[in-house]
Amino acid sequence: AGKRGIMVTHGAEANAPDVAEMAFGILLASTRRIVRADKMIRRGDWTKRIPNRFGAIAGMTGGKLGILGLGAIGMELAKRAKGFDLEIGYCNRNRRRDVDFPYFANVMELAKWADYLVVCLRSDASNRHIVNAEVLKALGPRGHLVNISRGWAVDEAALADALRHNVIEGAALDVFDEEPYEGTELLGLDNLVMTPHFGGGTEHAQRRMTALVCLNLENHFAGKPVASPVPELRDWANSPDAPTPR
Q: What is the C-alpha separation between 73 and 96, in angstroms, rounded?
């Protein structure tokens, strides 16, 4: 598109608060065994020994949250993490100058440090299976993984094996390598929470996306820089050579 002089915009950041909200929701569901506890009550299995049924539950307060990809969603997640008194660390392509969180140069070091690892990466083929068996082992037997970015960032076979053999304590996925998910290896895992890729599907997000589309159109036809160019065209969008209405 750039070679043809066509500006391309996107609304990826408009739903960032909603996706971050979802990440926290399913992280809580995983760490506090919420889905498993709900099923237990519905089965009529509630007894006075509930904690022993699920094993020791650490609780999130005071833990370490590792954010893999500190973009718009990662920053929204960090804002919410402060309310849980979580220590925040991150791994990013580049160190950010606007935060003072501990920076880790690679995902392995982040996983070793973190209690909870949340994948917030952008869509980039180089990130395929960046969370693999070695990363999960580094996260450890009390660790929890959340993926709300792209399904292929996590090696699902390695994740299933790690959950089955208690390499990590739990995980939660809102995204999958192939969607809709039609596999079987994840379905029987009680220590995995799954949702159907609807983290950003809220009314608030839709309104923000609509407003952003309108703003981009207004700016373009007024000869102003568009508000949300795709990353590949960001520099061009703010240059004198940016496309103007014809």
A: 14
Low-confidence ranges of the chain (pLDDT < 70): 49-52, 240-246
DSSP letter assigned to residue 51: H
Residue 116: the pLDDT is 99
- CATH T-level fold of 16-194: Rossmann fold (3.40.50)
**Which two three-digit tokens encode residue 171?**
């995980």
Q: Where are the alpha helices (DSSP H) in 104-225?
A: 107-113, 133-139, 156-164, 203-221
- pLDDT at residue number 159: 99
**CA separation for the pair 13, 6 (Å, rounded):** 21
Domain residue ranges in the chain: 16-194
Q: Is 173 exposed, middle or buried (0-12, 13-18, 19+ CB in 10 A)?
A: buried
Which amino acid is present at 212?
L
What single DSSP character describes residue 129?
Answer: T
d(CA 195, CA 171): 12
Cis peptide before 180 (omega within 30 of 0): yes
**Annotated active-site positions, please?**
150, 179, 197
Round to whole Å and give the CA distance between 120 and 117.
10
Give yes or no for a contact between 66 and 120, defined as CB atoms under 8 angstroms apart. no
User: What tokens appear for 114 in the block?
Assistant: 């973190």
Q: In whole angstroms, what is the distance from residue 152 CA to residue 195 CA?
A: 16
